[in-house]
């Protein structure tokens, strides 16, 4: 796994910074393609001894504030295990599963569910029951049901990795005011099209549209194209669950938080597009 510090900074910018669209729909938060990459980077660096200079710098920034990253690792692991439970093809890593199990055991041993029920994540109990039930229903060993044998471990495919054809479709729909059918036709007509099956594009779009839109908005902001005209906002409203996008994209920063987790210098409360490079 090749890691450089500039990419780490970019991951911080696209996960920790606030923006004025992520609160408009919960899947802007849950379907963030950068969380999987950030989790993999942390697991890789904390489990490696022979580090490059960039990797040491990243490890140092993590170890300065272990509680911050411990919380992120636990919540991300639970999220990725939940995806694996819902869809076994969405492989979680061995790191994810082991941290989920460790979190579950800790909460049970501390008697948290009985003594502090309002503070507990009750999903942990339901997820554990689902994993054990999978073993029983499918007549498989616990290690396989829990994803600890077979095609697991690092690296893994990012479940939020958006196919290039869907990135193209989102860009065409928003910038060229295309309908979904017109954007699909454009993809089918490309020389290196993925498929000629219309239903495949519809399925991929439904699966990846929130991640693709989120990525598109970040990229658009980074190129200083922050204004969305009424037609563009209308397209997003039509195909993304009636989300009413702001006219101007903004990415704001919790200065204290960024400095805390990334030792970054920041200027002002709204990060300018040039500051993302």
Brief rundown of the structure:
The chain has 277 residues and is mostly helical. It is built from 14 helices and two strands, in the order αβααααααααααααβα.
How many strands?
A: 2
State the domain count: 2
Please indicate the percent range of residues in DSSP E strands (runs of 2 or more). Answer: under 5%
Strands in their spatial order, largest beta sheet: 1-2
- Judged by helices, strands and strand pairing, the structural class is mainly alpha
Mean pLDDT figure: 82
CA-based shape? globular
The percentage helix is: 55-70%
- Provide the succession of SSEs: HEHHHHHHHHHHHHEH
Number of helical regions: 14
Q: What's the end-to-end separation, in Å?
A: 22 Å
If you had to describe this structure to a student in words, what would you say it looks like?
The chain is about 60% helix and about 0% strand. With about 280 residues, the protein is mainly alpha-helical. It folds into two domains: about 5-145, no CATH class; about 165-250. It has a two-stranded antiparallel ribbon. Helix 3 packs across helix 5, helix 5 (about 65-85) packs across helix 6 and helix 5 packs parallel to helix 8 (about 125-135). It is globular and about 55 Å long. The model is unreliable at about 150-155 and about 260-275 (pLDDT under 50).
SSE topology sketch:
Layout: H1 5-15, E1 18-19, H2 27-30, H3 33-46, H4 53-64, H5 66-86, H6 94-109, H7 112-115, H8 123-137, H9 142-145, H10 164-175, H11 180-189, H12 198-222, H13 230-239, E2 251-252, H14 255-262
Antiparallel strand pairs: 1-2
């Amino acid at each position: 796994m090749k890691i450089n510090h500039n990419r780490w900074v970019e991951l911080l910018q696209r996960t920790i910074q606030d923006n004025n669209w992520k609160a408009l729909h919960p899947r802007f938060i849950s379907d963030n393609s950068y969380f999987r990459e950030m989790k993999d980077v942390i697991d890789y660096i904390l489990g490696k001894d022979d580090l490059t200079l960039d990797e040491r710098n990243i490890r140092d920034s993590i170890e300065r504030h272990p509680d911050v990253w411990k919380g992120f690792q636990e919540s991300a692991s639970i999220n990725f295990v939940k995806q694996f439970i819902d869809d076994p093809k969405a492989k979680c890593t061995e790191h994810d599963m082991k941290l989920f199990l460790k979190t579950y055991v800790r909460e049970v041993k501390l008697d948290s569910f009985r003594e502090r029920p309002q503070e507990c994540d009750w999903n942990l109990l339901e997820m554990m029951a689902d994993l054990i039930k999978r073993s029983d229903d499918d007549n498989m060993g616990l290690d396989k049901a829990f994803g600890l044998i077979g095609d697991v471990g690092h690296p893994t495919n990012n479940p939020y990795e958006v196919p290039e054809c869907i990135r193209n479709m989102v860009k065409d729909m928003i910038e060229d005011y295309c309908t979904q059918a017109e954007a699909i036709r454009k993809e089918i007509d490309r020389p290196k099209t993925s498929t000629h099956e219309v239903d495949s594009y519809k399925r991929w779009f439904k699966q990846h549209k929130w991640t693709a839109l989120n990525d598109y908005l970040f990229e658009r902001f980074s190129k200083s194209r922050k204004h969305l005209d009424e037609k563009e906002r209308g397209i997003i409203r039509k195909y993304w669950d009636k989300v009413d996008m702001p006219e101007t994209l903004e990415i704001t920063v919790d200065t204290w938080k960024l400095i805390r987790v990334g030792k970054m210098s920041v200027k002002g409360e709204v990060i300018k597009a040039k500051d993302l490079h």
